[in-house]
Amino acid sequence: MSKPVVAIVGRPNVGKSTLFNYIAGKRISITEDTPGITRDRIYAEAEWRGRKFTLIDTGGIEPHTDDYIKKMMLRQAELAMETADVIIFLLDIKTGLTAADSDVAAMLRKSKKPVVVAVNKVDNIGELPPEAYEFYNLGMGDFHPISSIHGLGIGDLLDAVFEHFPEEEDGDQEEDVIKIAVIGKPNVGKSSLINCILGEERVIVSDIPGTTRDAIDTLVERNGKLYNFIDTAGIRKKSRIEEDIERYSVIRSFMAVDRADVCLIMIDANDGVTEQDTKIAGYAHEQGKASIITVNKWDMIEKETGTLEKMRKEILQELDFMNYAPVVFISAKTGQRVERLFELVDYVYDQASFRVQTGMLNDVLNEAMAMVQPPSDKGKRLKIYYMTQTGIKPPRFVLFVNDKELMHFSYERYIINTLRSNFGFEGTPIQLMLKEKND
Ligand code: GDP
Ligand code: GDP
Protein backbone atom coordinates (compact mmCIF):
# COMPACT_ATOMS: atom_id res chain seq x y z
CA MET A 1 0.00 0.00 0.00
CA SER A 2 1.34 3.40 -0.78
CA LYS A 3 2.03 5.60 2.18
CA PRO A 4 0.70 9.13 2.47
CA VAL A 5 3.14 11.76 1.29
CA VAL A 6 3.77 14.91 3.30
CA ALA A 7 5.72 17.75 1.70
CA ILE A 8 7.31 20.67 3.51
CA VAL A 9 7.21 23.91 1.54
CA GLY A 10 8.72 27.22 2.58
CA ARG A 11 11.24 29.94 1.90
CA PRO A 12 14.94 29.24 2.33
CA ASN A 13 16.06 29.42 5.97
CA VAL A 14 12.63 29.12 7.54
CA GLY A 15 13.80 25.82 8.99
CA LYS A 16 12.53 23.19 6.57
CA SER A 17 15.45 20.84 6.91
CA THR A 18 15.52 21.30 10.68
CA LEU A 19 11.86 20.32 10.84
CA PHE A 20 12.43 17.51 8.39
CA ASN A 21 15.24 16.06 10.45
CA TYR A 22 13.28 16.42 13.64
CA ILE A 23 10.29 14.53 12.26
CA ALA A 24 12.29 11.93 10.38
CA GLY A 25 14.68 11.67 13.30
CA LYS A 26 16.36 8.38 13.72
CA ARG A 27 13.97 6.79 11.30
CA ILE A 28 16.21 7.79 8.44
CA SER A 29 17.78 4.50 7.72
CA ILE A 30 21.50 4.41 7.51
CA THR A 31 22.97 1.60 5.53
CA GLU A 32 26.66 1.92 5.42
CA ASP A 33 27.15 -0.13 2.34
CA THR A 34 24.56 1.63 0.26
CA PRO A 35 26.16 4.76 -1.08
CA GLY A 36 24.44 8.01 -1.76
CA ILE A 37 21.23 7.48 0.12
CA THR A 38 21.65 9.44 3.24
CA ARG A 39 23.86 12.07 1.70
CA ASP A 40 21.07 14.48 1.24
CA ARG A 41 18.10 14.13 3.40
CA ILE A 42 15.21 15.22 1.33
CA TYR A 43 13.13 12.11 1.42
CA ALA A 44 12.46 9.93 4.41
CA GLU A 45 10.02 7.58 5.96
CA ALA A 46 8.48 8.78 9.18
CA GLU A 47 5.73 7.58 11.47
CA TRP A 48 3.05 9.25 13.54
CA ARG A 49 0.40 7.53 15.64
CA GLY A 50 1.35 4.21 14.12
CA ARG A 51 0.92 5.39 10.57
CA LYS A 52 3.93 5.44 8.28
CA PHE A 53 4.28 8.27 5.81
CA THR A 54 6.78 9.70 3.40
CA LEU A 55 8.25 13.08 4.22
CA ILE A 56 9.69 15.31 1.51
CA ASP A 57 11.69 18.47 1.95
CA THR A 58 11.02 20.37 -1.24
CA GLY A 59 13.74 22.92 -0.54
CA GLY A 60 17.33 22.49 -1.30
CA ILE A 61 19.30 24.79 -3.48
CA GLU A 62 20.05 28.18 -2.03
CA PRO A 63 18.62 30.86 -4.24
CA HIS A 64 20.50 34.13 -4.54
CA THR A 65 18.07 36.76 -5.71
CA ASP A 66 14.54 37.56 -4.63
CA ASP A 67 13.25 36.84 -8.06
CA TYR A 68 14.92 33.48 -7.98
CA ILE A 69 13.53 32.76 -4.55
CA LYS A 70 10.06 33.37 -5.79
CA LYS A 71 10.49 31.11 -8.79
CA MET A 72 11.99 28.40 -6.65
CA MET A 73 9.21 28.55 -4.15
CA LEU A 74 6.52 28.39 -6.75
CA ARG A 75 8.30 25.42 -8.22
CA GLN A 76 8.44 23.74 -4.83
CA ALA A 77 4.81 24.42 -4.20
CA GLU A 78 3.99 22.88 -7.54
CA LEU A 79 5.98 19.78 -6.73
CA ALA A 80 4.25 19.50 -3.40
CA MET A 81 0.83 19.93 -4.95
CA GLU A 82 1.59 17.29 -7.51
CA THR A 83 2.94 14.68 -5.20
CA ALA A 84 1.81 15.24 -1.64
CA ASP A 85 -1.32 14.22 0.20
CA VAL A 86 -0.73 16.91 2.78
CA ILE A 87 1.42 20.03 2.56
CA ILE A 88 3.13 21.67 5.51
CA PHE A 89 3.58 25.34 4.68
CA LEU A 90 6.38 26.59 6.89
CA LEU A 91 6.83 30.25 7.85
CA ASP A 92 9.37 32.00 10.01
CA ILE A 93 8.38 34.28 12.86
CA LYS A 94 11.78 35.91 12.89
CA THR A 95 11.51 37.29 9.36
CA GLY A 96 7.76 37.69 9.43
CA LEU A 97 5.54 37.48 6.42
CA THR A 98 7.20 38.16 3.06
CA ALA A 99 5.87 38.73 -0.43
CA ALA A 100 7.12 35.33 -1.51
CA ASP A 101 5.16 33.72 1.33
CA SER A 102 1.99 35.41 0.13
CA ASP A 103 2.52 34.28 -3.46
CA VAL A 104 2.99 30.71 -2.41
CA ALA A 105 -0.03 30.90 -0.14
CA ALA A 106 -2.12 32.11 -3.05
CA MET A 107 -0.96 29.20 -5.10
CA LEU A 108 -1.48 26.61 -2.37
CA ARG A 109 -4.97 27.93 -1.73
CA LYS A 110 -5.92 27.13 -5.30
CA SER A 111 -4.81 23.53 -5.02
CA LYS A 112 -7.19 20.99 -3.66
CA LYS A 113 -4.53 19.61 -1.36
CA PRO A 114 -4.86 20.07 2.37
CA VAL A 115 -2.36 22.59 3.70
CA VAL A 116 -1.28 22.81 7.31
CA VAL A 117 0.41 26.09 8.19
CA ALA A 118 3.23 26.19 10.74
CA VAL A 119 5.09 29.21 12.01
CA ASN A 120 8.59 28.16 12.99
CA LYS A 121 11.12 29.57 15.45
CA VAL A 122 8.55 30.25 18.15
CA ASP A 123 11.09 29.03 20.66
CA ASN A 124 9.30 29.82 23.90
CA ILE A 125 6.38 27.94 25.29
CA GLY A 126 3.40 29.99 26.39
CA GLU A 127 1.62 33.00 24.98
CA LEU A 128 1.82 33.45 21.26
CA PRO A 129 4.10 36.43 20.60
CA PRO A 130 2.17 39.42 19.19
CA GLU A 131 4.13 39.43 15.95
CA ALA A 132 2.63 36.05 15.13
CA TYR A 133 -0.77 37.55 14.47
CA GLU A 134 0.46 38.98 11.22
CA PHE A 135 0.34 35.46 9.75
CA TYR A 136 -3.44 35.56 9.82
CA ASN A 137 -3.08 38.03 6.91
CA LEU A 138 -2.15 35.09 4.71
CA GLY A 139 -5.79 34.14 4.62
CA MET A 140 -4.97 30.54 5.38
CA GLY A 141 -6.69 30.44 8.72
CA ASP A 142 -5.18 29.06 11.86
CA PHE A 143 -1.54 28.07 12.16
CA HIS A 144 0.68 26.03 14.43
CA PRO A 145 3.44 27.81 16.28
CA ILE A 146 6.41 25.47 16.44
CA SER A 147 10.09 25.39 17.22
CA SER A 148 11.87 22.86 15.07
CA ILE A 149 15.10 23.25 16.94
CA HIS A 150 13.54 22.57 20.33
CA GLY A 151 10.88 20.19 19.08
CA LEU A 152 8.03 22.32 20.39
CA GLY A 153 4.50 22.12 18.97
CA ILE A 154 5.42 19.43 16.50
CA GLY A 155 3.13 16.80 17.98
CA ASP A 156 0.15 19.10 17.46
CA LEU A 157 1.33 19.88 13.96
CA LEU A 158 1.58 16.19 13.10
CA ASP A 159 -1.85 15.57 14.61
CA ALA A 160 -3.24 18.14 12.20
CA VAL A 161 -1.36 16.55 9.31
CA PHE A 162 -2.60 13.12 10.36
CA GLU A 163 -6.21 14.31 10.16
CA HIS A 164 -5.77 14.77 6.42
CA PHE A 165 -4.27 11.38 5.66
CA PRO A 166 -6.36 9.39 3.22
CA GLU A 167 -8.21 6.44 4.68
CA GLU A 168 -6.06 3.38 4.93
CA GLU A 169 -7.08 0.93 2.26
CA ASP A 170 -7.07 -2.65 3.32
CA GLY A 171 -5.82 -5.45 1.20
CA ASP A 172 -4.14 -5.12 -2.14
CA GLN A 173 -6.81 -4.85 -4.76
CA GLU A 174 -4.29 -4.69 -7.56
CA GLU A 175 -2.93 -8.13 -6.82
CA ASP A 176 -2.76 -9.10 -10.47
CA VAL A 177 -0.93 -6.07 -11.74
CA ILE A 178 2.85 -5.95 -11.63
CA LYS A 179 3.88 -2.40 -10.83
CA ILE A 180 7.04 -1.32 -12.58
CA ALA A 181 8.96 1.84 -11.81
CA VAL A 182 10.94 3.19 -14.73
CA ILE A 183 13.61 5.21 -13.00
CA GLY A 184 16.75 7.02 -13.94
CA LYS A 185 18.18 10.43 -14.56
CA PRO A 186 16.62 12.88 -16.99
CA ASN A 187 17.10 12.01 -20.67
CA VAL A 188 18.08 8.43 -20.06
CA GLY A 189 15.07 7.41 -22.13
CA LYS A 190 12.29 6.64 -19.66
CA SER A 191 9.53 8.19 -21.75
CA SER A 192 10.99 6.70 -24.90
CA LEU A 193 10.83 3.26 -23.34
CA ILE A 194 7.23 3.66 -22.33
CA ASN A 195 6.37 5.04 -25.75
CA CYS A 196 8.13 2.11 -27.32
CA ILE A 197 6.10 -0.26 -25.19
CA LEU A 198 2.90 1.44 -26.16
CA GLY A 199 3.98 1.43 -29.76
CA GLU A 200 2.86 4.97 -30.22
CA GLU A 201 3.51 8.47 -28.96
CA ARG A 202 1.92 8.88 -25.60
CA VAL A 203 -0.33 11.79 -24.91
CA ILE A 204 1.54 14.06 -22.53
CA VAL A 205 -0.39 14.68 -19.38
CA SER A 206 -1.25 18.31 -19.01
CA ASP A 207 1.27 20.44 -17.18
CA ILE A 208 -1.25 22.50 -15.29
CA PRO A 209 -0.20 22.83 -11.65
CA GLY A 210 -2.27 20.61 -9.45
CA THR A 211 -2.76 17.93 -12.04
CA THR A 212 -2.14 14.74 -10.26
CA ARG A 213 0.83 12.86 -11.51
CA ASP A 214 -0.69 9.54 -10.73
CA ALA A 215 -2.43 9.82 -14.06
CA ILE A 216 0.91 9.21 -15.68
CA ASP A 217 0.76 5.53 -14.80
CA THR A 218 0.48 3.42 -17.90
CA LEU A 219 -1.38 0.16 -17.82
CA VAL A 220 -0.17 -2.35 -20.40
CA GLU A 221 -1.54 -5.76 -21.21
CA ARG A 222 0.72 -8.40 -22.59
CA ASN A 223 -0.10 -12.10 -23.01
CA GLY A 224 -3.10 -11.67 -20.77
CA LYS A 225 -1.06 -10.13 -17.96
CA LEU A 226 -1.30 -6.58 -16.67
CA TYR A 227 1.65 -4.32 -16.06
CA ASN A 228 1.47 -0.87 -14.59
CA PHE A 229 4.38 1.32 -15.66
CA ILE A 230 5.10 4.17 -13.29
CA ASP A 231 6.84 6.86 -15.27
CA THR A 232 8.83 9.62 -13.65
CA ALA A 233 9.59 11.68 -16.71
CA GLY A 234 7.01 14.45 -16.60
CA ILE A 235 8.62 16.69 -14.06
CA ARG A 236 11.76 17.62 -15.91
CA LYS A 237 10.14 19.71 -18.59
CA LYS A 238 9.39 22.52 -16.21
CA SER A 239 12.70 23.49 -14.82
CA ARG A 240 15.75 24.91 -16.45
CA ILE A 241 18.09 24.68 -13.50
CA GLU A 242 20.36 21.70 -13.60
CA GLU A 243 20.57 20.74 -9.92
CA ASP A 244 16.93 21.47 -9.59
CA ILE A 245 16.06 18.97 -12.29
CA GLU A 246 18.30 16.36 -10.75
CA ARG A 247 16.93 16.82 -7.30
CA TYR A 248 13.32 16.58 -8.32
CA SER A 249 13.93 13.66 -10.56
CA VAL A 250 15.52 11.86 -7.63
CA ILE A 251 12.50 12.58 -5.45
CA ARG A 252 10.15 11.37 -8.14
CA SER A 253 12.24 8.26 -8.66
CA PHE A 254 12.09 7.49 -4.94
CA MET A 255 8.33 7.86 -4.95
CA ALA A 256 8.02 5.55 -7.92
CA VAL A 257 10.24 3.00 -6.19
CA ASP A 258 8.00 3.03 -3.12
CA ARG A 259 5.00 2.02 -5.18
CA ALA A 260 6.72 -0.50 -7.40
CA ASP A 261 7.15 -4.26 -7.40
CA VAL A 262 9.96 -4.14 -9.92
CA CYS A 263 12.34 -1.28 -10.69
CA LEU A 264 13.85 -0.74 -14.08
CA ILE A 265 16.99 1.17 -13.24
CA MET A 266 17.82 2.91 -16.46
CA ILE A 267 21.42 3.69 -17.23
CA ASP A 268 22.62 5.58 -20.28
CA ALA A 269 25.03 3.34 -22.17
CA ASN A 270 26.98 6.43 -23.22
CA ASP A 271 27.59 7.60 -19.66
CA GLY A 272 27.86 4.43 -17.63
CA VAL A 273 26.86 4.54 -13.99
CA THR A 274 26.64 8.08 -12.60
CA GLU A 275 26.30 9.26 -9.02
CA GLN A 276 22.61 9.82 -9.47
CA ASP A 277 22.17 6.30 -10.83
CA THR A 278 23.90 4.95 -7.75
CA LYS A 279 21.63 6.95 -5.52
CA ILE A 280 18.49 5.71 -7.22
CA ALA A 281 19.67 2.11 -7.36
CA GLY A 282 20.72 2.31 -3.72
CA TYR A 283 17.28 3.43 -2.72
CA ALA A 284 15.60 0.58 -4.63
CA HIS A 285 17.97 -1.85 -2.93
CA GLU A 286 17.31 -0.41 0.48
CA GLN A 287 13.58 -0.59 0.01
CA GLY A 288 13.90 -4.26 -0.87
CA LYS A 289 12.62 -3.93 -4.42
CA ALA A 290 13.36 -6.31 -7.24
CA SER A 291 15.41 -4.54 -9.88
CA ILE A 292 16.60 -4.89 -13.42
CA ILE A 293 19.53 -2.80 -14.53
CA THR A 294 18.39 -1.55 -17.89
CA VAL A 295 21.14 -0.09 -20.02
CA ASN A 296 19.51 2.05 -22.68
CA LYS A 297 20.71 3.62 -25.96
CA TRP A 298 22.60 0.47 -26.80
CA ASP A 299 22.15 1.39 -30.47
CA MET A 300 24.53 4.33 -29.97
CA ILE A 301 27.45 2.24 -28.79
CA GLU A 302 30.14 1.12 -31.17
CA LYS A 303 30.56 -2.54 -30.50
CA GLU A 304 33.42 -4.94 -30.74
CA THR A 305 33.62 -8.46 -29.48
CA GLY A 306 33.17 -8.42 -25.75
CA THR A 307 31.86 -4.86 -25.46
CA LEU A 308 28.66 -6.02 -23.83
CA GLU A 309 30.31 -8.29 -21.31
CA LYS A 310 32.87 -5.66 -20.46
CA MET A 311 30.20 -3.09 -19.83
CA ARG A 312 28.11 -5.51 -17.80
CA LYS A 313 31.09 -6.13 -15.58
CA GLU A 314 31.83 -2.45 -15.15
CA ILE A 315 28.23 -1.65 -14.29
CA LEU A 316 27.97 -4.42 -11.72
CA GLN A 317 31.21 -3.25 -10.21
CA GLU A 318 29.84 0.26 -9.79
CA LEU A 319 26.57 -1.05 -8.40
CA ASP A 320 28.16 -3.85 -6.43
CA PHE A 321 25.50 -3.76 -3.70
CA MET A 322 23.06 -4.84 -6.42
CA ASN A 323 25.04 -7.67 -7.93
CA TYR A 324 21.92 -9.85 -7.86
CA ALA A 325 20.22 -7.78 -10.55
CA PRO A 326 20.12 -8.89 -14.17
CA VAL A 327 21.59 -6.41 -16.63
CA VAL A 328 19.89 -5.97 -19.98
CA PHE A 329 21.05 -3.83 -22.88
CA ILE A 330 18.21 -2.24 -24.76
CA SER A 331 17.34 0.48 -27.19
CA ALA A 332 14.12 2.30 -26.54
CA LYS A 333 14.60 3.83 -29.97
CA THR A 334 14.82 0.66 -32.03
CA GLY A 335 12.96 -1.58 -29.61
CA GLN A 336 15.92 -3.93 -29.26
CA ARG A 337 15.37 -6.40 -26.38
CA VAL A 338 12.31 -4.58 -25.07
CA GLU A 339 10.43 -7.90 -25.29
CA ARG A 340 13.19 -9.47 -23.25
CA LEU A 341 12.59 -6.83 -20.63
CA PHE A 342 9.07 -8.13 -20.07
CA GLU A 343 10.37 -11.66 -19.61
CA LEU A 344 12.83 -10.37 -17.06
CA VAL A 345 10.14 -8.43 -15.22
CA ASP A 346 8.06 -11.60 -14.89
CA TYR A 347 11.13 -13.51 -13.86
CA VAL A 348 12.41 -11.23 -11.12
CA TYR A 349 8.87 -10.72 -9.85
CA ASP A 350 8.52 -14.49 -9.42
CA GLN A 351 11.93 -14.68 -7.83
CA ALA A 352 11.03 -11.99 -5.33
CA SER A 353 7.75 -13.78 -4.53
CA PHE A 354 9.32 -17.17 -4.01
CA ARG A 355 8.87 -19.00 -0.71
CA VAL A 356 11.16 -21.72 0.52
CA GLN A 357 9.85 -24.42 2.81
CA THR A 358 11.34 -24.31 6.27
CA GLY A 359 12.58 -27.91 6.08
CA MET A 360 14.47 -27.35 2.89
CA LEU A 361 15.80 -24.06 4.16
CA ASN A 362 17.31 -25.68 7.22
CA ASP A 363 18.86 -28.49 5.24
CA VAL A 364 20.65 -25.86 3.24
CA LEU A 365 21.57 -23.92 6.34
CA ASN A 366 23.03 -26.96 8.07
CA GLU A 367 25.05 -27.84 5.05
CA ALA A 368 26.33 -24.29 4.79
CA MET A 369 27.35 -24.29 8.45
CA ALA A 370 29.15 -27.57 7.98
CA MET A 371 31.11 -26.11 5.08
CA VAL A 372 32.00 -22.83 6.78
CA GLN A 373 31.77 -22.61 10.53
CA PRO A 374 29.92 -19.65 11.96
CA PRO A 375 32.20 -16.97 13.41
CA SER A 376 33.29 -16.94 17.02
CA ASP A 377 34.53 -14.27 19.34
CA LYS A 378 36.53 -14.69 22.56
CA GLY A 379 35.94 -18.41 22.59
CA LYS A 380 32.21 -18.15 22.04
CA ARG A 381 30.83 -19.41 18.77
CA LEU A 382 27.71 -18.24 16.97
CA LYS A 383 25.03 -20.89 16.92
CA ILE A 384 22.26 -20.69 14.38
CA TYR A 385 19.47 -22.95 15.61
CA TYR A 386 17.25 -22.65 12.60
CA MET A 387 15.89 -20.24 10.07
CA THR A 388 12.54 -19.53 8.54
CA GLN A 389 11.23 -17.35 5.73
CA THR A 390 8.91 -14.70 7.07
CA GLY A 391 8.09 -12.74 3.96
CA ILE A 392 8.31 -12.18 0.24
CA LYS A 393 8.93 -9.18 -2.02
CA PRO A 394 11.66 -9.12 -0.85
CA PRO A 395 12.34 -12.55 0.60
CA ARG A 396 12.90 -12.09 4.33
CA PHE A 397 14.40 -14.62 6.67
CA VAL A 398 14.70 -14.84 10.40
CA LEU A 399 17.65 -16.67 11.90
CA PHE A 400 17.35 -17.82 15.49
CA VAL A 401 20.74 -17.58 17.14
CA ASN A 402 22.38 -17.84 20.55
CA ASP A 403 23.93 -14.36 20.45
CA LYS A 404 23.35 -11.69 17.80
CA GLU A 405 26.60 -9.95 18.61
CA LEU A 406 28.55 -12.91 17.31
CA MET A 407 27.20 -12.55 13.79
CA HIS A 408 29.64 -11.14 11.32
CA PHE A 409 28.87 -9.18 8.18
CA SER A 410 30.84 -11.59 6.04
CA TYR A 411 28.96 -14.58 7.43
CA GLU A 412 25.64 -12.92 6.69
CA ARG A 413 26.82 -12.42 3.17
CA TYR A 414 27.84 -16.06 3.02
CA ILE A 415 24.36 -17.15 4.05
CA ILE A 416 22.76 -14.86 1.51
CA ASN A 417 25.03 -16.20 -1.20
CA THR A 418 24.15 -19.73 -0.17
CA LEU A 419 20.45 -18.90 -0.42
CA ARG A 420 21.03 -17.48 -3.87
CA SER A 421 23.00 -20.42 -5.15
CA ASN A 422 20.37 -22.84 -3.89
CA PHE A 423 17.16 -21.00 -4.60
CA GLY A 424 17.97 -18.25 -7.08
CA PHE A 425 16.29 -15.12 -5.82
CA GLU A 426 17.70 -13.42 -8.87
CA GLY A 427 16.95 -9.73 -9.17
CA THR A 428 15.79 -9.30 -5.61
CA PRO A 429 17.50 -8.21 -2.42
CA ILE A 430 17.34 -10.68 0.46
CA GLN A 431 16.81 -9.48 4.01
CA LEU A 432 18.06 -11.36 7.04
CA MET A 433 17.00 -10.73 10.59
CA LEU A 434 18.55 -12.20 13.68
CA LYS A 435 16.62 -13.18 16.75
CA GLU A 436 17.83 -14.52 20.02
CA LYS A 437 15.75 -17.24 21.62
CA ASN A 438 14.28 -14.98 24.25
CA ASP A 439 13.58 -12.05 21.86
P1 GDP B 1 15.72 25.62 5.36
O1 GDP B 1 16.56 26.41 4.44
O2 GDP B 1 14.29 26.07 5.31
O3 GDP B 1 15.87 24.15 5.21
O4 GDP B 1 16.18 26.03 6.84
P2 GDP B 1 17.16 25.28 7.87
O5 GDP B 1 16.49 24.13 8.50
O6 GDP B 1 18.46 25.07 7.21
O7 GDP B 1 17.27 26.39 8.99
C1 GDP B 1 17.71 27.69 8.71
C2 GDP B 1 18.26 28.30 10.00
O8 GDP B 1 17.20 28.49 10.95
C3 GDP B 1 19.29 27.45 10.67
O9 GDP B 1 20.29 28.28 11.16
C4 GDP B 1 18.54 26.79 11.81
O10 GDP B 1 19.37 26.48 12.88
C5 GDP B 1 17.53 27.86 12.16
N1 GDP B 1 16.31 27.30 12.76
C6 GDP B 1 15.59 26.27 12.30
N2 GDP B 1 14.55 26.00 13.11
C7 GDP B 1 14.63 26.89 14.15
C8 GDP B 1 13.85 27.13 15.33
O11 GDP B 1 12.87 26.45 15.62
N3 GDP B 1 14.24 28.15 16.13
C9 GDP B 1 15.33 28.91 15.85
N4 GDP B 1 15.64 29.88 16.69
N5 GDP B 1 16.08 28.71 14.76
C10 GDP B 1 15.75 27.72 13.90
P1 GDP C 1 13.58 10.69 -20.15
O1 GDP C 1 13.90 12.07 -19.71
O2 GDP C 1 14.32 9.69 -19.34
O3 GDP C 1 12.13 10.39 -20.27
O4 GDP C 1 14.21 10.57 -21.64
P2 GDP C 1 13.50 10.61 -23.06
O5 GDP C 1 12.73 9.37 -23.30
O6 GDP C 1 12.79 11.91 -23.21
O7 GDP C 1 14.78 10.55 -24.01
C1 GDP C 1 15.76 11.56 -24.01
C2 GDP C 1 16.44 11.59 -25.36
O8 GDP C 1 17.13 10.39 -25.61
C3 GDP C 1 15.46 11.75 -26.52
O9 GDP C 1 16.04 12.61 -27.46
C4 GDP C 1 15.33 10.35 -27.07
O10 GDP C 1 15.01 10.34 -28.44
C5 GDP C 1 16.72 9.80 -26.83
N1 GDP C 1 16.68 8.34 -26.64
C6 GDP C 1 15.94 7.64 -25.75
N2 GDP C 1 16.19 6.32 -25.84
C7 GDP C 1 17.09 6.17 -26.82
C8 GDP C 1 17.75 5.03 -27.41
O11 GDP C 1 17.55 3.86 -27.03
N3 GDP C 1 18.64 5.27 -28.41
C9 GDP C 1 18.89 6.53 -28.85
N4 GDP C 1 19.77 6.66 -29.84
N5 GDP C 1 18.30 7.61 -28.33
C10 GDP C 1 17.41 7.45 -27.34
Task: Summarize the structure in words.
- This protein has 439 residues and is of the alpha/beta class.
- Helix 2 packs parallel to helix 3, helix 6 packs parallel to helix 7 and helix 10 packs across helix 11.
- Strand 4, helix 3 and strand 5 form a beta-alpha-beta unit.
- It is globular.
- Helix content is 33%, strand content 21%.
- The protein has a 6-stranded mixed beta sheet, with helices on both faces. Strands 8-9-7-10-11-12 form a 6-stranded mixed beta sheet, sandwiched between helices. A 3-stranded mixed beta sheet has the order 15-16-17.
- About 10% of the residues have low confidence.
- One guanosine-5'-diphosphate binds next to helix 5.
Task: Give keywords.
single chain; 439 residues; alpha/beta; six-stranded mixed β-sheet; 11 helices; binds guanosine-5'-diphosphate
Q: How does the SSE layout of this entry go?
A:
Blueprint: E1 5-10, H1 16-24, E2 43-48, E3 51-57, H2 66-83, E4 86-92, H3 99-110, E5 115-120, E6 144-145, H4 154-163, E7 177-183, H5 190-198, E8 218-222, E9 225-231, H6 242-259, E10 262-268, H7 275-286, E11 290-296, H8 307-318, E12 327-329, H9 338-352, H10 358-371, E13 376-377, E14 380-381, E15 384-391, E16 396-401, H11 409-423, E17 431-436
Parallel strand pairs: 1-3, 1-4, 4-5, 5-6, 7-9, 7-10, 10-11, 11-12, 16-17
Antiparallel strand pairs: 2-3, 8-9, 13-14, 15-16
The structure holds guanosine-5'-diphosphate (2 copies).
